């Protein structure tokens, strides 16, 4: 009963937000378009993304700008929801901000690694907010990776990144990005264990555990198939607190000799009937499963944390679908093929002429 009072108003708000999300008809129409400009115009004139185009000239919009706008839309929705949260639930919801903050940090590291100045980065593409631990006014003045990391001295990012600095003002970029991702998941799970209990704990653990499972499967397979990495390196970047993959499953996968052996184990494992491991697009089938599971929980458990976290996850999947369509237009991929890559319940979208 207490949860019903706590979540009732917010559940109604999220249900209204969910009702504005893209429908099958929108994806039918988007798949027929021929350019990024046409996609931008459609989203601006026919969908709830209109508000996100207010400070953007879509006459000259390019792919990168449109994808940035979509990611900003996710953050803006998260901030809307956060206004209604209090106490422990609000602290947990910061996972949305932390994720974007880490992506911004990766973006700056990549730019400096390639010798590009940070002042060329469009500030609109960054999560500049009082929620962020990064002082962007200082960070964007850095001319080298060492200078950038020095601006992080008062954050948890400094002890993660400083040991990875190389002598030539470069950084082990692969290790840095993996370490930041691992830090993110560890922080999320620490907050879950500290602040959440009961059904909400179960739902949070399941949602992030499924995500961890998928990332671990991809990491182990690619490490074996493409990079032939040592086992100790693979183990060092395993994300803990998975859902379906238990410790023994992870050990068997890492100890497998080849990528083919990993694939055989995955097909026989708990995700064998969920992920299409024979395709080159594991994320497609996984996101369909993940999105459907979130939707089901939002419907069946309205007076829990399920709608709060579920909305963000299904919004992320919607944005992934839009990004896939944008990429399809860019590379002139057949719309039927693009549709097959979308993480949606396929109903067939018919004629694209």
Question: What would you say this structure looks like, in words?
Answer:
With about 350 residues, the chain is an all-alpha fold. The protein has a domain at about 85-195: V-type ATP synthase subunit C fold. The chain is about 65% helix and about 0% strand. The chain has 17 helices and no strands. Helix 11 (about 200-225) runs antiparallel to helix 14 (about 260-270) and helix 15 runs antiparallel to helix 16. The longest helix has 30 residues, at about 200-225. The chain starts with a helix and ends in a 12-residue tail after the last helix. Residues about 345-353 have low confidence and may be disordered.
Describe the SSE topology:
Layout: H1 2-19, H2 24-31, H3 36-46, H4 63-82, H5 87-92, H6 95-113, H7 136-139, H8 145-150, H9 157-161, H10 173-195, H11 198-227, H12 231-236, H13 247-255, H14 259-268, H15 282-300, H16 306-330, H17 335-341
Helix pairs in contact: 4-16, 6-10, 10-11, 11-14, 11-15, 15-16, 16-17
């Amino acid at each position: 009963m207490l949860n019903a009072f706590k979540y009732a108003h917010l559940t109604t708000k999220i249900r209204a937000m969910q009702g504005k999300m893209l429908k099958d008809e929108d994806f039918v129409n988007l798949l027929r378009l021929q350019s990024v400009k046409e996609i931008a115009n459609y989203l601006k004139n026919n969908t709830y993304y209109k508000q996100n185009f207010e400070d953007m000239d879509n006459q000259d919009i390019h792919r990168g700008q449109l994808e940035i706008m979509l990611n900003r839309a996710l953050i803006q929705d998260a901030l809307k929801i956060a206004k209604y949260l209090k106490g422990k639930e609000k602290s947990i919801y910061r996972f949305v901000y932390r994720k974007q903050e880490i992506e911004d940090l990766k973006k700056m590291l990549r730019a400096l690694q390639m010798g590009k100045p940070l002042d060329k980065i469009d500030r609109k593409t960054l999560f500049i907010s009082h929620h962020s631990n990064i002082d962007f006014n200082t960070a964007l003045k850095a001319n080298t990776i060492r200078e950038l990391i020095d601006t992080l001295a008062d954050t948890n990012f400094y002890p993660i990144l400083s040991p990875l600095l190389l002598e030539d003002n470069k950084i082990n970029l692969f290790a840095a990005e993996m370490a930041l991702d691992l830090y993110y998941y560890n922080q999320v799970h620490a907050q879950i264990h500290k602040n959440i209990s009961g059904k909400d704990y179960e739902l949070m653990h399941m949602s992030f555990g499924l995500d961890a499972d998928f990332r671990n499967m991809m990491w182990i397979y690619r490490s074996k198939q493409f990079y032939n990495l040592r086992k100790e390196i693979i183990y060092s970047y395993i994300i803990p607190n998975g859902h379906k993959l238990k410790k023994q499953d992870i050990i068997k996968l890492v100890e497998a000799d080849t990528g083919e052996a990993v694939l055989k184990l995955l097909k026989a494992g708990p995700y064998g009937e969920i992920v299409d491991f024979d395709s080159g697009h594991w994320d497609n089938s996984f996101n369909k499963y993940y999105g459907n599971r979130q939707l089901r929980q939002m419907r069946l458990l309205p007076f829990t944390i399920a709608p709060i976290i579920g909305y963000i996850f299904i919004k992320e999947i919607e944005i992934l679908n839009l990004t896939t369509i944008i990429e399809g237009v860019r590379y002139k991929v057949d719309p039927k093929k693009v549709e097959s890559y979308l993480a949606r319940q396929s109903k067939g979208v018919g004629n694209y002429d």
